Amino acid sequence: MGDMTAPTQARRVLLAAPRGYCAGVDRAVIAVEKALEQYGAPVYVRHEIVHNKYVVQTLEKKGAIFVDQATEVPPGNIVMFSAHGVAPSVHEEAREGRLATIDATCPLVTKVHKEAVRFANDDYDILLIGHEGHEEVIGTSGEAPDHITLVDGPEDVANVEVRDDSRVVWLSQTTLSVDETMETVDALKEKFPNLISPPSDDICYATQNRQTAIKELAQQSDLVIVVGSKNSSNSQRMVDVAKQAGCPAAYLVDFAREIDETWLEGVSTVGVSSGASVPDVLVEEVLAWLSERGYGDVEIVKTAEESLTFSLPKELRRDLRAEAAALIEERTGRPAAS
What we know:
Elements: E1 12-17, H1 23-39, E2 43-46, H2 53-62, E3 64-67, E4 78-81, H3 88-96, E5 100-103, H4 107-121, E6 125-129, H5 135-141, E7 148-151, E8 168-172, H6 178-191, H7 205-218, E9 223-227, H8 233-244, E10 250-253, E11 269-274, H9 280-292, E12 298-302, H10 320-332
Parallel strand pairs: 1-11, 1-12, 2-3, 2-4, 4-5, 6-7, 6-8, 9-10, 9-11
């Protein structure tokens, strides 16, 4: 027993698994890279393809141009829709703007869109649980604006009004925290006892898995660092979940250089994870940064196995440059200038 340091002082890192890229993000990022390879630059992308600074900057260097609206893209070009999904009106704008489109919406988001359409067709009032202004919420609401009411958390429930409380269903933004959603659902059920739940759980598997892992970590950590961007809803939720699970401090950083050394004071265990739109190279940098400061011992905390993959958007199998040129020709009656 010659070791003078008490085991409690041992510095270690608990690394969450699963973390980082989910299948929908992976598919969207690869879709942009493939489109650039196949069709050459520029490929326009409406909104950030995924909510991550580094990913967006990397793709810009390769020739992707990010725009706020499809209407900003010059006719005869290719525009890609982000993983968060878009309202039908945006597809319409692209058609009118003579743009060839690639839809990189995550299939799990598409599923929620389809549910919204189906319930709207059956004349239900749809209560969409989500954050106001979030791209995914805007896209889903656009599927059936007359039938959808946004409910932004349990405190919003008091203001909700429906036409017929026997025909009400809830749907949710896929990147919320499971606990947060169920708290809102419980409040809604109290107000509308006949509230129907969606046929399948809409909180995405990746969001759920990353939150389960961080909950586990947080209970054993003095500090939790989540790698992710401020505008990433699922990354923000992970910080909230860590704090709710009892971790004294949890922070969101885009890059290792944003970590503040003072956070490490009195800390023996650091939990590390990353949001669903974060490439692992950024996590590696954080681990290297921690290692330089004595936290070299890394233990993986695994709470789930992820094997889901999605096939790439089918539009990548077509000659979109030719389609875009044909759209211009159709509008003007003249061949597009090459």
